[in-house]
Design goal:
Elements (H helix, E strand, L loop, with lengths): L4 H12 L3 H4 L2 H17 L3 E5 L5 H8 L3 E6 L2 H11 L2 E4 L12 E7 L9 H11 E10 L9 H17 L3 H7 L10 H10 L3 E8 L10 H8 L3 E2 L5 E7 L7
Parallel strand pairs: 1-2, 1-4, 2-3, 4-5
Antiparallel strand pairs: 5-8, 6-7, 6-8
Helix pairs in contact: 3-4
Amino acid sequence: MKLNDKEYEKLIHDAAAWDYEKKVSEWIVEHKYFVSARWGRKFRGLFLDYGCGTGLVSRYIANIEREIIGVDISKNMCKIAKKLWGVQVVVGDCLNLPFKDKAFDVICISGVLHHFPHQLEKAFSEIGRCVRKAVCIIEPSSTPPRIFLRPILFLNKLYGWILFHLYKYTHLREKYTYSIFEKPLDPKRLVKLCEKEGLQISEIRFFNHIPRITFLPESFRRHLVNSMLSSDHGTDVEIIATRHHFEQK
């Protein structure tokens, strides 16, 4: 039986859940903390961690005394999130959220939308339906990174492509490549989708970093990461979009 995109992603994340925390690089953990803590300080109310995985974003927002619920299609990921951090989680499809209209004040999305690039309209329709105040997004961006990073990023992509096509062993493919359905997203498209749901862009920022360059030492990757914040282009984009007339605090 041939799996569709959604079934494949569910299978991959269910399988990866039990040792996911060990596989995630320290830089990604720190980056999620930096971004999600800022979101939590900026807004109040009930938060939704959209595509929560093992609950890193939920954990950090809950730590600053915000109420948050996580949702993820992977039952195993939800089990780990609840076990590790004690956060409230719901097993559910992000493209058909199991919540009432305007159920959440803020929806947080950290590295989720690029898993289903061909279904973004459906995703945003559900996000717009369920959110009352604001949407906070950080996703891989299709805009060019800083010039000196481009050769390194190209080599990393080539490295992953070779491994994906030459090795049939799942553990190698999982370690060195993305899911085959993941693609960076056009920030302009994300902005338009937010606006289509009645959300105004209040902030947009770009980060230049290389956390997934697996052939470079972790220490060297971290050195490059520290000062790579840009206002106009980068490997990751952060967008905060809000509805009219709400209180941030």
